[in-house]
Amino acid sequence: MMLPVMMLPVMMLSLAIAYVVPWGTLEFIAKEIMMLRKIPCLLLLLLWAPLAMAQENASSIDNSSGKVSDVTTEEDPYLWLEDVSGDTALDWVREQNKSTQEHFESQAGFRELESDLLKILDSDERIPFVSKSGDYYYNFWRDKEHVRGIWRRTTLDEYRRKEPKWEIMLDLDQLAEQEGENWVWKGASILRPDYDLALVDLSRGGADATVTREFDLKAKQFVQGGFERPEAKGGLNWIDRDSVFVYTDFGDGSLTTSGYPRIAKLWRRGTPFDSAEVIYEGQPDDMYISAVHDDSPGFERNFVSRTIAFYNDELYLLGDDKRLTKIEAPNSADKSVFHQYLTLRLREPWTVNDQTFAAGSLLVTNFDDYMAGVRDFDIAFEPTENSSLDSYAPVKDHLLINVLEDVKNRIYVLTPEGDNWKREPLLGAPEIGTVGVSPVDPDESNAFWMTSSDYLNPTTLYYGSIGEQPEQLKQLTPMYDASGLEVSQHFATSKDGTKVPYFMVAPKDLELDGDNPTLLYGYGGFEISLTPGYNASVGRAWTSQGGVYVVANIRGGGEYGPGWHQAALKANRLRAYEDFAAVAQDLFQRGITRKERLGIQGGSNGGLLVGNMVTLYPDLFEAAVCQVPLLDMKRYHLLLAGASWMAEYGDPDSPGEWSFIQNYSPYQKVQPEVEYPAVLFTTSTRDDRVHPGHARKMMARMKEQGHDVTYYENIEGGHGGAANNKQRAYMQALAYAYLKERLFGE
Questions:
Q1: Sign of dihedral through CA atoms 579, 584, 587, 591?
Q2: Residue 36: predicted pLDDT
Q3: pLDDT digit string (tens) for 687-722?
Q4: For the chain, how are helix, strand and coil distributed in percent, rounded to 5?
């Protein structure tokens, strides 16, 4: 089993940033990631410190340390809205919600749209993606009968059937009723080699903070007196039947300034939680600390990971004597161990033994030899001007690499042959659309899962083995009529001359009269790539109604590798916004739309994008949907997980950095005399990743200045904005109803 430390930042961001991609694609990413059986443990690195941090941050808003981020209530009269669950703040939230609900819920067609979106989300016409553990294939499933969801399993023979028979392991609706908690599923890790115990992670209301409980797969119940981690952001990771690694909130001083685990411990069964043995302590200003066990038969190893910031980490081999040996490689490189191999995915050029390897390259070497000082590498992938490495994954005897060529996936199989690796296309891989591959059980076989989809064609799932034609297992039925639509790719020219790709979904007979209602979506951060993916909600609510849908692949993302991401870091952040503006202007020049018909949408980092497009380019857009956003960049690092993103945005309290951060801090830039696009802000009270105070304060300031703003905050939901499909459908209906009202009118 691969120790996927190299994938941590990408995986973290694929799931941590809930609005990186439209919902359907996000669900696919999450399911695909879960197929790597060890990933659920590592994903717990995301499930960070308690929501109480919000109150801690809010209670210290007036201080006198002299930092840029220290503001008084006179300078920021809306600081009180950072008190997440304070009565006064929540009364304000309810007042805004009431106005929004009364307006939209009374509109003709709103309830029908909400119902249709809920049917899509609840539909059984979804692929039940599975992950293999032992002889069984596990799946977590939500539908209208199982609102919170069920964890279930089946066999491969059953899974091949159109209607597999499932064995239910845990019913969250029943558990929530029994315990009086709104439990939301956060994943499970199953113990090898007996596959009879699991560590299950649950969150209250969809927050990142979770509890971990040991679960008996035979008895189908939680183990009384078993391993149990109190609610916090962190995780448990199996070592063996009687010991686990734990990284979590152990009390005062045990968290980083970002609110993540700072200490990793080894905890033995039957001993008090407080007596767990410390194996590593990070620094307070680290991002997070974790420990993981590689359970690959014959290659069992333990590792400690120290993440200093995004794309800045150290990996240590933990010996039986508890001594740590650092894997000496660039901190910016993704490091992964699988069986006898160490892989390094470079984000910066690296010179070793007089040989320089390009940023974006994937290097492979023998792990034991490397630890002994040998520095001989095979180059598994080297980027070109129009290609980058999207992902990679091992199967038993091969390495699968997924390459983006102008934001289109190509899958290759690498096979070790002597001192080289033979490279050939994966047999049966689709030539168009977004294609993903992941191993079924890399310790045991060369089998893989493969998925394909695009904006018009729903996901198809294949099961294959290297060298054989893949078997189509599942294919979704289209959930809206896309027969009159087509997808095209175009390139806009940004301010500095950079060519910026974007995809457009539009009617085949589109009139180039500049009068088409158009929704422009973007993200542009953390090296996340936006590739074509099917989204029935967008189809039902927008493109099938005559709207044009555009996805911009702006800098800050990962579409062309680490260089594309690094081009919009910190002081260069404005390049991402220049790219987005260039796409809008290209749409005008091509006759697709005009300012009065153009709306934009984005969430989380994409919400920061939207906030900046509104404040920096108000003349380009008519309306904006700004979801779970970052907006107050003067104080973002003090709120919840914000400190962990300083490698992306910069430190407002660092000398010289506020000078460029202030250029993309919408909360400080909004002015009463400027005419801005109309904005809908949406967020969640239970979001313990991006603080809801960002959206609250921006809404309050813009409303006080007399701008056209609307607000809705879900009281539950976490960073995804919703805790279940009903809430998700309502939030989606609000967004599309708002955009249609603003962009389809006369």
A1: negative
A2: 29
A3: 767 899 999 999 999 999 999 999 999 985 444 545
A4: 25, 30, 40
Q: For 624-634, how does the pLDDT look when each residue is reduced to its tens digit (9 = 90+)?
A: 999 999 999 99
Number of domains observed in the structure of the chain = 3
| Domain boundary residue, one of 331, 352, 376 | 331
719 is catalytic: yes
Q: Which of 146, 637, 707, 719 is catalytic?
A: 719
- 381 beta partners: 362
Q: According to the model, what pLDDT value does residue 354 have?
A: 93
**Residue 684 is a catalytic residue:** no
- 333: CB partners within 8 A, 6+ apart: 6, 344, 345, 346, 347, 348, 350
Q: Where are the alpha helices (DSSP H) in 207-328?
A: none
Q: Are residues 272 and 164 in the same domain?
A: yes
C-alpha to C-alpha distance for 56 and 53, rounded to whole angstroms: 5
Do the beta carbons of residue 524 and residue 580 sit within 8 Å? yes
What CATH number is associated with residue 27? 2.130.10.120
The reply to whether 179 and 316 lie within a common domain is: yes
User: If we measure between CA atoms, which residue out of 708, 697, 643, 704 comes closest to residue 675?
Assistant: 708
The answer to whether 399 and 389 have CB atoms below 8 angstroms apart is no
For residues 264 and 305, membership in a common domain is answered with yes
For residues 436 and 522, state if they share a domain: no
Rounded-to-integer distance, Cα 16 and Cα 130, Å: 21
> Do 141 and 240 fall into the same domain?
yes
Q: Kind of pairing, strands 243-247 and 235-240?
A: antiparallel
Residue 311 has pLDDT above 90, yes or no: no
Q: Where are the beta strands (DSSP E) in 444-547?
A: 447-453, 460-465, 471-475, 485-493, 499-507, 518-521
Residue-range definition of the domain harbouring residue 469:
387-475
| Residues 551 and 521: beta-carbon distance below 8 Å | yes
Residues 134 and 211 both lie in one domain: yes
Q: Strand, coil or helix: what is 738? A: helix
- Residue 430 sits in the same domain as residue 531: no
Q: Would 697 be classed as within a structural domain?
A: yes
**The dihedral formed by the CA atoms of 577, 7, 286 and 559, expressed in degrees to the nearest 10:** -10
| Mean pLDDT confidence for 69-93 | 92
Report the alpha-carbon distance of residue 136 to residue 43 in Å, rounded. 21
Q: Which one is catalytic: 604, 644, 665, 684?
A: 604
Asked whether residue 299 is domain-assigned, the answer is yes
Summarize the confidence of residues 465-470 as an average pLDDT: 96
Helix (H) or strand (E) holding 380: strand 378-381
Asked whether the beta carbons of 502 and 519 are under 8 A apart, the reply is no
Q: What is the pTM of this model?
A: 0.77
Same-domain check for residues 567 and 642? yes
Residue with tokens 């967004």: 735
